Amino acid sequence: MNKHYTASEIASFSRWYLDDWPVFCWTADYGLFVAAMPRGSVWRCNIYNNAQLINAMAAGMLPALALLLGVPAACCLLFSWRGARRLQTIAAGLATVADGGTIRLPTDGFAGELADTVNRTSEQLRRRNEIIARRDDARTSWIAGVSHDVRTPLALILGWAEQLEQDTALPAAARQKACGIRTQSEKLRALIEDLNLTSKLQYGAQPLRCQPTQAGPLLRRLAAEFCDSPLAASCTVALEIAPDADKAILDADAALLARAVENLLHNAACHNPGPVQVQLSAVRTGKILRITIADDGAGYPPAVLHALQTGEAGENTPHILGLHVVEQIIHAHGGTAAFARNTPRGAKAVLVLPVTEDPAAR
């Protein structure tokens, strides 16, 4: 490189390039120190501008930056607000559908597809509920109508069968047949009553007339009535009530609760061959009264236990309407009913009911 440069050349390359070499210059005691960078590695240029313009640009940079950030932020907030309102409308519609209502949401906007799905779901549920309501009304009306139409001729059959059974002028075989007619008619009457009761309990048409009821006297009365009935000929009842259970106060419909216990006692007497020993007991644990009806008979068939414990009834499941009525009555009182095999043999039903200490409840 040329070692001698004029003052104008030195002034030129100190600010830009020296033969396309980007150079940097420093003053030293011996003169000028020049350092070069590889060609093409650094760009060197000087920018000149008006000071007022630079100051104005610096002063306006912050507002411009705020504007650039504020506009997108405002747009995001606006769209989020509109989206949140639309989603709130859909959420309110879903709550209405969950409560059994019918809705019609607008289907425009980004949530239009979701709103349309909710609308179609609401319409399907409305149609299904209408079908179920018509079916339930028809079922209830049919049961009530059949019960009403059957009750009068059934009463006549029972009366005539009882007269024939007690007519000493008839042969013994005829009187025995009359006894069978009366027994089967009584079973039919009980079945009709169970059908009516389970239908009313299922659809809330059976009001609970709850009053403070002492457990001990109620259970003793039921055991005494059962012992005085014809069923006691093939079934004996042993009553065992703990002292604290005897004084337990139940907020219950005494008639319905008695119906549940009677159904279990009748099952023990009617569904077991030969003499059966039934144990009716009651114990109290805190705020809970546990009533147990256990016998030493044949026990519940496996199909019956499966249907009672799982709620699934198969084609060959035996008749369990009476036990289903027991479940419904106990559940209506806020309790639970459990059915199992007794040890070492027989059937056992455990009724768990809440105890109230307030005699003025309800």
Topology:
Elements: H1 7-13, E1 17-18, E2 21-28, E3 31-36, H2 51-98, H3 112-166, H4 172-202, E4 211-214, H5 215-228, E5 235-241, H6 243-246, E6 249-252, H7 254-270, E7 276-285, E8 288-295, H8 302-310, H9 321-332, E9 336-341, E10 347-354
Parallel strand pairs: 5-7
Antiparallel strand pairs: 1-2, 2-3, 4-6, 7-8, 8-10, 9-10
Descriptive report:
The chain is built from 9 helices and 10 strands. It is rod-shaped and about 160 Å long. Among the domains are: 126-202, Methane Monooxygenase Hydroxylase, Chain G, domain 1, CATH 1.20.58; 211-354, Histidine kinase-like ATPase, C-terminal domain (Heat Shock Protein 90, 2-Layer Sandwich), CATH 3.30.565.10. It has helices at residues 7-13, 51-98, 112-166, 172-202, 215-228, 243-246, 254-270, 302-310, 321-332; strands at 17-18, 21-28, 31-36, 211-214, 235-241, 249-252, 276-285, 288-295, 336-341, 347-354. The mean pLDDT is 82. The strands form 3 sheets. The chain has a 5-stranded mixed sheet.
